[in-house]
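Board notes (copied after class):
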Amino acid sequence: MSDVDAHDENIMIHDTIHGSYYLPDLAWEIIDTPIFQRLRQIKQTGNTHYVYPGAEHTRFQHSLGVAHLSREFGRAIKLKYGTLISDREILLLCIAGLCHDLGHCAFSHLYDSLIIPMFTTDIQPAPAPASAYSFCHEEASYRLLSKIIQETEGLSDKIEQDELETIGKMIFGSAEKTPPSLRAGDTPCIKWTPSDEGRMWLYEIVSNSRTGIDVDKFDYLKRDCHYSGVQCTFDPQRLMAFFKIEAGHITFRNKSKEIIRSMWVSRDDLHRRVYQHRVVKCIDLMTVEMLKHCADMEIIKGTPLKTAHLNLDAYCLLTDYRVQFMAEQVPAAKQILDRIQRRDLWKNLGSVESPHAIEFRFSQPNIKVALATLQESYIYYIYDMNHASESELSCPTSVVYRELIQQTQAVTGATITLREAY
């Protein structure tokens, strides 16, 4: 098997973020499959486009960008360290970058963090980290890539099983981040060995759980800022010029500190202003409520929406457009979808910012809580599901406000911001 694609510059990509570049032929064999093409129908930043109309970009664009940056980083390592990395490993890096988000489905991270937990626990979701549940989109990414290789003619001859395992390690980044389901059993899909420990740099390029500095972040920071209109001064190409490999890990020279600082500033800006905007969080909760009414609708014969994440064939069908079409067929779900599209949103009663987690409980079933985690603080947005004109909960003397104040006063350092009553 040749280490280098002899004809890898047949199709040029013109990217708004990274300019014009080529990807290898092997990457295109994966890109030109239905499983990968479905990423065109999954928005990169979920429901943020309701607040930032430009944020209509997709997981497809992001995946191509990460593939390009992974390949560029690999080439930079070869240029600097020679035989430390092979051409074949650079190719595998490119494939890992291309497929790292292959396992996302409708509404991107929202599906992992709230929708699947709702179906799994069969209760109204409370704010909780996705790690509390067994499903993760990274595992789906690995399994879908394996499915593509098995089902695409000739591809299993070009990516061997040990190489698929290497790609999996590049996607997960460390043994700790690799799902137990892939590491368990007599013949695990992914087996981390002592020899991997000396070459962790190879697995820190696409996903770096040690420092958080990786090409996935390089692309989404630039791309999400661009399409949402948020200013970004971070320069990933310049940062990559200052890398070094030290004690088996990717590190960066001291002169790159200001670039790294700008990276974290850009990330914080996106979280505060875009990803966790109070209106976005409201629409997220409304989307979860909408899909609760669609739980029993069949995706494929014998597999309803609530268990679709357990069946790869059904899961592949869950794109933004497919799920929206499904919601239009269920009266209760359509009513919520219509409210979202008319911008008749649940009313934001106020917010609580706290250095500690708070488990809010309200006596009124129409009160919903969304969590935004920003740096060292937790921000809880409180919403009323009723139409504003119908709500009797907006008055600051209401039971809801009293319960909100009582629960917040019990937490040191927590502050309440009440929104103006109608």
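Comment from the instructor: Residues 13 and 21 are 5 Å apart (CA to CA). The longest helix spans residues 59-81.
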